[in-house]
Fold this sequence. Notes:
- The protein is α+β, with helices and mostly antiparallel strands.
- It has one domain (4-198).
- The protein contains seven helices and nine strands; from the N terminus they run αααβααββαβββαβββ.
- The strands form two sheets. Strands 2, 3, 4, 5, 6 and 7 form a six-stranded antiparallel sheet that branches. Strands 1-9-8 form a three-stranded antiparallel sheet.
- β8 and β9 form a beta hairpin.
- α2 packs across α3, α3 (30-43) packs across α4 and α6 (97-103) crosses α7.
Amino acid sequence: xxxxxxxxxxxxxxxxxxxxxxxxxxxxxxxxxxxxxxxxxxxxxxxxxxxxxxxxxxxxxxxxxxxxxxxxxxxxxxxxxxxxxxxxxxxxxxxxxxxxxxxxxxxxxxxxxxxxxxxxxxxxxxxxxxxxxxxxxxxxxxxxxxxxxxxxxxxxxxxxxxxxxxxxxxxxxxxxxxxxxxxxxxxxxxxxxxxxxxxxx
Length: 201
């Protein structure tokens, strides 16, 4: 669950994805455009904390860059988050094929369309490292053990290197500390927003 971090931490991942990209021109969607500029502000070494609203985080998750990443790496589509102190609640759709390896005979039959997934994830980030723990999760309304959810949904998410998205350390592991992207010292989740804390110069 190491790379999932950025994702469910909502911001670390955003900053990580931005690592391999050039500063974008402002997209037509003003919320998404403003949010990307804030992410690049952190990546460029700004000493000031950056505040992202829940709407901005969701705009980023709906961007072409992150939609493609989440679909390919985790089988997730239509991802939306709600932000609370220390917790991210995530909903979306998961490719039913992702469930087959971990659910065996209990998995949906071949050809089943994507299934609704809901997760509650505890996120901590300070001192340049982060940690993510799945608190609870359900697929198609059926509550599953956090470990099963991690294997099915998060198993495709991998560590992020400084040069961009690369498979550098294997799947993210629940509760295992991981380094935050360069330029980010910590994250602070609040009700409806997340504060990105810059690393000292």
